[in-house]
Amino acid sequence: MRSNICIKCHKPLSDPKSVERGMGPVCARRESAKAEMESGVILLQDPFLKEGLVCKRIDGKLACNIPIEIHHHAEGVEIGYSGSGPADLALNVLNMIFPVEPGVETTPIFNGKVCSRMAWNLHQGFKWKYIAGMDENGGRVTIEDIYQWIEEQGVKIPEMHEKSA
């Protein structure tokens, strides 16, 4: 499944690398710099919509391939245990798939921000299934596994994510 729409600016994507990444080159550069400055998490360039979630440690810091934009607490994202850091990572993963858009129900979270209600409703289960048990040095959850897990929860994948060949 892939989206031909940028997850940040919602403009159409035509370049295959941009479609795989889920963002055009301008948004990807902005998000990489912004996410690293705000969250302290290094943003990997592995395209989320192709690779799924990729996490690894670089010089002791957590690196992920999704921008960390939302938190429901102040500590930041983490992997390998069942606390708030892994919950925030799960929330950010699911918010990539169920973004806040006009007409989408939202839930208020930390620091005046919101996330989609669907991301909020699913994030704890996703944390337990994939993030809490991830090796503290890193790991990967394929996009296919993410979509399958969502469907197993009885939730339909958003239309903006079309099936890939």
Describe this structure in words.
- A hairpin with a 2-residue loop joins strand 2 and strand 3.
- The protein is built from six helices and six strands.
- Helix 4 packs across helix 5.
- The chain has one domain (16-152).
- The model has no long low-confidence stretch (mean pLDDT 82).
- The chain is globular and about 40 Å long.
- With 165 residues, it is α+β, with helices and mostly antiparallel strands.
- A four-stranded mixed β-sheet has the order 1-3-2-6. Strands 4-5 form a two-stranded antiparallel sheet.
Largest sheet: 4 strands, mixed
Form type: globular
Mean pLDDT: 82
- What topology, given as strand order, has the largest sheet? 1-3-2-6
End-to-end separation? 8 Å
